[in-house]
Structures are given as C-alpha cells and as structure tokens.
Amino acid sequence: MAAAASSLGEQIREELTCSICLELFTRPKVLPCQHTFCQDCLEVHARKEGMSECPNCRQKVTLPSQGVAGLPDNSMAASMCERLKRQATLSTGEQPKSGKKCSIHPSEEVKLYCKQCQIPACEICLEETHDDHRTTTIKKAAQERISTVQALINEGRNILDGYHRFIRGLEETEKTLKKKKQETDNGIIQAYYQMVQKLAEKKDHLLSESELDHEKNLEKIQNGRDGVSADVNELSAACDQAEQELQQEQVEFVGQKTTLPEVVGKYRGKAAPTPVQTQSAVFQPTDNAVPVLGHMKAGGIGHHQGNQKQEKQKPDKVTFGGRGSGNGQFKDPVGVAVSEEGEIFVADRGNQRIQVFTLQGTFVRQFQTIFILPKWQIMNPTDVALDGAGNPWVLGWTDSADFAVKYDKHGKACIKINIQKMGSRGVAVDTRRNHILITQTTGDEETLQGEVQVYRSNGTLVRTVCQQQGMTEPFAITVDREGNILVSDRHNDCVYTYNEYGQFLRQLGKFRYNSYTRRAEPGNLRGPRGICTDREGSIIVADTGSRCVKIYKTGTFLKVIAEDIQQPWAVAMATQGPLVVTDGLTDTVTVFHKL
C-alpha cells in the first residue's frame, strides 16, 4: 500500500513537472493546446526559438499582445506544486520560511495585497484599514505586477530599438556627409587649380601680345632709321670734306672745287623726315581683378561670394591642425614656407612628410620625404624653403646622415645634398643666385661655432660664411631682398645679420638691462627659432622663450605681433601679406591675415 502511494506521488510530481526545465512548475501558463509550462521557461524559449508552436506537440500558438505573461494561468497546477513543496519540506524536517512581516504589526505576516490601496497588508491591517477593500494573495498580486512590468519592459525594449535605429541612421548620415564634404573640397581645389592654369595661360597670351606689339614698334623705328641713313651719310661726308678744306692754305682753298653747295642745295628743298608713328599696347585689367571661384549651396539656396552688399568679414586669423597622423594633422610642425601662389608648405617632422595648405587652412596635398638617390630612404624633415620656381628644398635627417633634398611640387626627389650630421638646423634659398644656404654648428660643447654653408643648386659647395661675432647655435635662416643673411641663435638669444658675402653687419635681440626700469628690454629674445622678412624689409622672429612673435626694422624692435602662440617655432610671410606661424606645443599652424 505504501509502495502504491509512493508510485502515485511520483506520477503526480511528473505531471506537475515542466518539460523544459524538468522542475516543478513555477507560475505555470497554459497554451491553447492545454500543455502547461513555467512562465520563465516559455519566455526564454520565445526569445531563443520564437513562440510560434508548442514545445511539446508543435501545435501552432499565437501569443496575446502581452506576450507570454498574457497566457492564462494554470491555478490548479500552481496550487498542487505549492502543496508538494510544503509536503517535501515537512518530510525533510525543515521549517517553512516565514513570510515578510508587517511594518505596522511586526508579529503578523503579510499574506494579502489590497488592490484599492495597492499595498501588502496583514490580517489585522485588513480589519482595521482595508475591511471593505478588494484583496488578493501576495503571489497573485506579484504575478500580475510581473506581467505589467514585463509588458513595460517589452515596450521599453521596442522604444530602445527605435532609438538605436535612429542613432545608426545618424552614423550613416555622418559618413555620407564626410564623404560629400571631401568631394566638395576636392571640387573647390580642382576648380582653383583649373582657374590658376587658365590665368597662367591668359598671362602668357597677354605677354605674347605685348611682345609682338613691341616688336612691331621696333620694326617701324628701324625702318625710319634705315630711310634716312643714306641721306645722313651723304650730308655728313660733304660737311666733313668742307671742314677739311677749311684747314688748308688760302691759295689751295680758293683753287679747289667743293661738292658741298651741290649736296646742300639738293637737300635744301627736300622735306624733313616725318616722325615715325608708334603706339604701345596698354594692359587694362578687368574690374573683377580676382575671378570668382564659385559659390556654395546649402539647402538649395545659393550663397554667392562677392555679390552681396555686405560680405562676411574675413577672420583676423585661421588656426588648423592638431596632433595626429591624418591629412591636416601634425606631429611637430618644425618648418614652414609660403609660395608665390599662396600655398603653405609645412615640414611635418613626426609624420615624415611635407603637407601643403591654402592660406585659409584647407588641405591640398602631402608627400612623404622619401628619396631614392641612390637607395630608398625616408628622412625626418626639420625645415623647408622654396626656390625661385616654387620647388621645395627640404632639410632633414636619418639615423646615418643629414640631407638637403630638392623635390618638385608633386613630391618627387630631384637633387640630394649630403651634409654633416648635426641635428637641428635651418635652410634658405637665395633666389637671386639660386644658392642653397644651410646652418650648422662645429666643434665640441666648449668650442661651439656656428656657420652657414652655401651650395649651388646642383649640390656643389661654394663657400662657408658667417663665422664671425661668436655665433654658436644657429637654428633658422633666411635671406632678405638685398641678399643679406639672417640667422637666429638659440644659445646667444639673438639674431645675426651678415651681408651676402658673410661679413657681419649687426646683431638684434641680445639681452639688455634697462637700469632705469630695472627690467629687460621688450626687444630682448629668449631662445629664438623661426625667422623671416616681409616686403618692407622688416625682420620677423619667433621668440619661443617668450611665447610670441616679434618684429624688428633696421635692427630696432618695433612691436609684438602674435602673443597667443604656446611655442612659436617656424614663421613665413606670404607675398600677399599674411604671416604663417607653427606651434610646436599644440601641433597647429596659424595664419594671421591681420597683424
């Protein structure tokens, strides 16, 4: 009899076991096919496999809008499972866990839930406060609450999916915009170079017309000269003969017959030569001296440059760059030069390349400082200068040696000069003689001496100059309009000026102490680096130690022209007027359109 009871109990337990988790039902839910499963098991199954059929009989199942939580409860199965669990607890001698105690009546257990007040309550609370309120069991209230929360979770997940789709759309839009911007920038740059080419062709055509017009005028003048040369020769000969006869004795003079009367008579009645009519061609520039490159369109509305009554004022300065290896980013922008066309060449030492920009800071192109003369090498550029044709001369170093390399405008190496390995140094081009000037330091720490080596464009050393006045650590170098050589000396905190043959002229920026104010003079320099000159012959110096750029004229300090540079390194002045300054601390380049 006991064995039969035990067998019956096992059968009942088997009937009350979920076929998914193989445990007694927890919150059992009934499918339309009348098979019962735990709610949590059905939810897991629905997430993994999709709830389109019963896990047991494979009958089609359509879930309500609330999902698994909306399926009907199997209350009888839940009750029987609870009784089996209590019986198992009693049979093992374990005490059932006590429920949660009431916060108002600590000795009472909370067993019911007041639907009207939406709070759990003990039996005393029900009698005192919730006597006529609708109540339910804590378990059923929890199940209802779980169903509601689960529905909200599902709704929240659906909303999150919408937001995620929105964010993914933004990312795709951002990629598209970036691609479109690059295409737009490339179009602007291409249009610019096409316009420059057309202007160059027009310039050549106009110069050819001017030359042709000049040749026609010269031809008229030569024809006029040829037309009277025979007459001039005849008259001149007759006059010369008569003057010779005047020098003879009177008897001989009286007896001679001269041709002068006949020649003079011949030309006495002849009309004087008419002036040659010439007319030189005059160039008349168009009203629009600078052609309109184009216009931008935003939202279908064209914003035309140059045709508005109130043009947007250009910024006083433009800063671009930042540390990195992408186009337009730098790692130590240590050298800079500006071409006649307004292109900025930046020696990007850390990225081993030269980058080219417009005066508005737009990236144009870049090339690696590579040469194959005779073998493939890549160098770290320290300075850059442009020759008369606008080709960059780049100074740099490798692990084995230092070099000065001439590249064409597209970055192809043309000429290489091997120089003594000395570390940081500067390069300049004397465009009048097409000479390449390079600074260097010789000697040891106690006998340092700075000098400048002058090379021909083919790499032949011409001479070594500027070995006077104690220059010890030359850094940057430039050549002014007169051919004078200017060199910054970081060690001596000054700038040395020499004539074209290397003879010392003057020194500027050297420390001077004002005994009246007991302060250093404002024109003093502290670790100067970059140096250049402008069209008026003024000298512009990157005063790195003072974090500013200073300007001098004929050896006299004038003013500070850029104070918001953290570490001014290299400077260059464009033909159009803007000053370009590199910042070695922030890895940026700033173009000052107004000083």
Looking at CATH, the homologous superfamily of the domain at 317-592 is TolB, C-terminal domain
Low-confidence segments: 299-311
- For this structure, what is the CATH class of the domain at 317-592? Mainly Beta
* Approximate strand percentage: 25-35%
What number is the mean pLDDT? 81
Proportion of residues in helical segments: 25-40%
Number of helices: 7
Looking at the structure, the CATH topology of the domain at 317-592 is Neuraminidase
Give the terminus-to-terminus CA distance.
111 Å
Supply Rg.
Answer: 48 Å
The computed structural class is alpha+beta
- DSSP strand count: 35
The general outline is elongated
Can you list the strand order of the major beta sheet? Answer: 8-35-34-33
- Sketch the major β-sheet: 4 strands, antiparallel
Q: Architecture of the domain at 317-592, CATH level 2?
A: 6 Propeller
